[in-house]
């Protein structure tokens, strides 16, 4: 059954995409899973798709409503009596040029992807410290390590997550707390369709890179493996993950490659 057995895992953004795939991956390994998202009907469907639905607890959650996090976290904790791993997966992407993007869109991206994630993590942190163990697995992106046109706000918030969680890892290693940052490349989900455009509306179009990306089930299995190994960071995707190393050693070359690419 693997290392997921007997673990208690809380997954945000679990009603579709990566979060849904992770729910099945953990549930199949024997874990108990608390699943959260805004889409209650979607969460109920995910629960019913699991082999042992009695090991799945549905907890609707909106990352913007930080004032609810205290009692939502208590409910999540009480569902199975503890939590071993918080998987910060919920978020929204963006596809628009800087010149065309309203400031409100940047604020929304920051509120959901960054501040919502930080607030939820801060709420559960004292409980992790109390039990002297716990792991934060935060879904960032390759865009948290280098940038690309049309994704300025998304890149900004993902870069910010690295700054915060790297500091959290250092401050709380002494408390037995682990931090794993997961950087997906192109994964076959609706992330591009659901991305915000300049006026804050949905993109509603698929892009070829996402359509031809890594299957989400393959991604979820690799992500679980990285969390099991307590890696600091994991880059999961196809050839696009090479951008990490090109950026590190040849930043100007990466700039040219990205500008020439068809990615939009």
From TrEMBL:
<comment type="similarity">
    <text>Belongs to the short-chain dehydrogenases/reductases (SDR) family.</text>
</comment>
<protein>
    <submittedName>
        <fullName>Short-chain dehydrogenase/reductase SDR</fullName>
    </submittedName>
</protein>
<dbReference type="Pfam" id="PF00106">
    <property type="entry name" value="adh_short"/>
</dbReference>
<dbReference type="InterPro" id="IPR036291">
    <property type="entry name" value="NAD(P)-bd_dom_sf"/>
</dbReference>
<dbReference type="InterPro" id="IPR053011">
    <property type="entry name" value="SDR_family_member_7"/>
</dbReference>
<dbReference type="InterPro" id="IPR002347">
    <property type="entry name" value="SDR_fam"/>
</dbReference>
């Amino acid at each position: 059954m693997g290392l997921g057995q007997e673990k208690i895992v809380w997954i945000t953004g679990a009603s579709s995409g990566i979060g849904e795939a992770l729910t099945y991956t953990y549930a199949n390994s024997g874990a108990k899973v608390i699943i959260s998202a805004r889409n209650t009907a979607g969460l109920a469907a995910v629960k019913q798709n699991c082999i042992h639905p009695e090991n799945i607890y549905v907890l609707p959650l909106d990352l913007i409503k930080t004032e609810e996090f205290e009692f939502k976290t208590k409910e999540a904790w009480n569902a199975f009596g503890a939590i071993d791993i918080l998987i910060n997966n919920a978020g929204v992407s963006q596809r628009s040029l800087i010149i065309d993007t309203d400031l409100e869109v940047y604020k929304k991206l920051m509120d959901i992807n960054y501040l919502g994630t930080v607030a939820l993590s801060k709420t559960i942190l004292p409980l992790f410290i109390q039990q002297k163990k716990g792991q934060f697995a935060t879904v960032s992106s390759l865009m948290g390590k280098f940038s690309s046109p049309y994704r300025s706000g998304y890149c900004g918030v993902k870069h910010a997550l690295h700054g915060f969680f790297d500091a959290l890892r250092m401050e709380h290693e002494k408390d037995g707390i682990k931090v794993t940052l997961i950087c997906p490349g192109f994964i076959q989900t609706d992330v591009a369709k659901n991305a915000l455009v300049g006026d804050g509306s949905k993109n509603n179009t698929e892009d070829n890179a996402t359509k031809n990306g890594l299957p989400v089930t393959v991604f979820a299995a690799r992500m679980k493996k990285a969390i099991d190994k307590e890696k600091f960071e994991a880059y999961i995707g196809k050839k696009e993950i090479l951008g990490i190393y090109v950026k590190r050693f040849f930043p100007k070359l990466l700039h040219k490659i990205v500008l020439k690419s068809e990615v939009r």
